Amino acid sequence: YGFLSGCSQRVRVGNHTSSSLILNTDTPQGCVLNPLLYTLYVHDCIPAHTSNTITKFADDTTVVGLISRGDESAYRDEVDRLLSWCGDNNLVLNTNKTKELIV
């Protein structure tokens, strides 16, 4: 459970106040604690192959893999492991923001 779960919130614009909404999620987007909480949550998400790197910043994660002689197996395995790790840790990848770049 998130530290805000069960709390209520309202939005006020000028003299108008919305009805109360009970939160059932973790932290709101833009919360100053989000980068720290994300870092603590994903600290054990590490690469399985020495040819790959997993870089995390704020709430973004990047997998970088060295593909040599056309062998993508270690890189593809790393991506599969990341997907499994996310599933095991109740994280959902935003496929609209997910990109693959091969250089």
Shape by Cα distribution: elongated
Oligomer: single chain
Task: Give the strand order of the largest sheet, numbering strands 1, 2, ... along the chain.
Answer: 1-4
Structural class: alpha+beta
Q: Give Rg in angstroms.
A: 19 Å
Biggest sheet layout: 2 strands, antiparallel
Order of helices and strands: EEEEHEEH
Q: Which regions are unreliable across 5 or more consecutive residues at pLDDT < 50?
A: none
| Share of β-strand residues | 15-25%
Distance between the amino and carboxyl termini: 40 Å
**Tally of contiguous helical segments:** 2
Number of extended strands:
6
What's the structural domain tally?
A: 2
**Rounded average pLDDT:** 84
The share of residues in helices is 10-25%
Protein name: Reverse transcriptase domain-containing protein
Organism: Micrurus spixii
Domain Reverse transcriptase: 1-103
Pfam family, one: RVT_1
Walk me through this protein's architecture:
- This is Reverse transcriptase domain-containing protein.
- It comes from Micrurus spixii.
- With about 100 residues, the chain is α+β, with helices and mostly antiparallel strands.
- It folds into 2 domains: about 1-25, no CATH class; about 30-100, no CATH class.
- The protein is built from 2 helices and 6 strands.
- It has helices at about 35-40, 75-90; strands spanning about 10, 10-15, 15, 20, 50-55, 60-65.
- The strands form 3 sheets. A two-stranded antiparallel ribbon has the order 1-4. It has a two-stranded antiparallel ribbon with strand order 2-3. Strands 5-6 form a two-stranded antiparallel ribbon.
- The protein is elongated.
- The mean pLDDT is about 85.
